[in-house]
Amino acid sequence: MIVSQAEAIANEKDKSTKKKTWIHKAQNVRDFAWASSRKFIWDAMRVDVGGKKIWAMSYYPKEANPLWGDYSTHLVALTLKEYSKRTFDYPYPVAISVEASNGMEYPMICYNYGRPNPDGTVNPRIKDGMFGVIIHEVGHNYFPMIVNSDERQWTWMDEGLNTFLEYLTELEISNTPWGKKAILRATPPRAAIQNTSRLICASVRNNWCPL
Length: 211
Ligand SMILES: [Zn+2]
What we know:
The protein has helices spanning 5-11, 67-86, 124-139, 141-146, 155-170, 189-206, and strands spanning 41-49, 52-60, 94-99, 104-106, 109-112. By secondary structure, the protein is α/β, with parallel strands linked by helices. It has one domain: Orthogonal Bundle (Neutral Protease, domain 2). The longest helix has 20 residues, at 67-86. It is globular and about 50 Å long. Zinc ion is lined by residues 136, 140, 159, 162, 211.
């Protein structure tokens, strides 16, 4: 835990008017995004990928808990392990999942939805969607970010490969200690293949933008 919930609650009470400079440095990236908020809780864990230690991290406000604290960073770590096993080793030093209203991918950082209801209850569909979107957007690091295909011209290529790997990764959730307690539909491999081919066809037909 780099910034705990108690620290984030203290941070959000006050606002500095001073200037702060952050210098970001990244190798072999084709795009850039970042996120900042004094509301952010920040947790992190190390993942072993091909003998290298990668930081899996999440930024989220207290309103996203307990879902985000329980699952986001675990999902990032699982995605790095599964995608690296099935394709190539993740080359970047970090992968970050940021809580947001929708899903969008950038190198090393992505934005994902999924909050509990204000009364603290959790809609299973939201939770299911959150699991899928985090795996999916972290997965876009591999396709198209690292292989550097053109996601605007050939959307079907990265969405197709990524969605297929996303479903295979979802199947591994129930094999993890944290995933055993998560109620989740598991997409069977056959449905994963059918869904992926449907997505590729729709993407080519409608000339979709990245998602
Ligand atoms: Zn996508």
